[in-house]
Structure formats: structure tokens, C-alpha cells
Amino acid sequence: MNLNHEVLTALWGPAEQWIAEGFAAYAAEPAVDMQCRTIFDNHGYLPLANMVHPEWTASMYPASKIYPELGSFVQYLHQTYGIARLRQVWHRGSRSIPRVFGKPLLQLEHEWQASLYPLIDPGSIPARPRARR
Questions:
Q1: How far apart are CA 117 and CA 33, in angstroms?
Q2: What is the total count of domains within the chain?
Q3: pLDDT tens-digit profile of 71-122?
Q4: 63 lies in a domain?
């Protein structure tokens, strides 16, 4: 557990691993969006549904993919919706996402991806693999 995990856990309590890891990656790496775009451009993208759920653990996929993706997604949620909503999801878990943000995970995922490519036609974003569970 790194310092970011320890501070957030001390302040907010325990959370699902995806959001704890995403917050840590976001806090630790200012260029997390750039890293994430590189993953997308190389077609190494993992659908968020594969990671954003209570059973997910960091050992399920390569760290080189999960940390930039989750960090970038958490950064997007923070910058777009604010810390109060992010904290609600921290406490309530991934199943609360539709209530907290007013839209399902898949819609948030599309909006987050579009934010990574603001000047590019959405049709040119690399194809998304299908989610597995």
C-alpha cells in the first residue's frame, strides 16, 4: 500500500480496489491521460466493465494497462463531477455509479474516452473490445 492509499483509506475508509488504485495512479502520475491515450492508440485498451466492479483485483490484468486507465478515469470523474461524487462512489462502490453520476458506467466510459481525444472525430477512436466478466 502506498502513501496515497494510506491517506485516502485513513480519511475515507476502505474502498473497492479499482477506485483505490485509480485514485493512487491519478495522484502519482500527472501524465496519466497521455499514458492512457498511448494504450488506446496501441489497441491495448481494457473495457472499464472488466475492472470497475467489486470482485476486481489488480492482479487480473497487466499493471501497465490498469493503472493508466483507472487513473485517467478517476481523474475524469474528479474533474468533471467533483470530489463529493467521487467520494460517494468510494464509500458505496461501483454499483452506485448510475445513482451517483446519473448515467451508467458505459456512458461515462464513452464520455471519458471522448475527453481524451477532444479534437478528434469520435469515430477515429480505436475500437473498444467487448467487456468480459
A1: 10
A2: 1
A3: 999 999 999 999 999 999 999 999 999 999 999 999 999 999 999 887 555 5
A4: yes
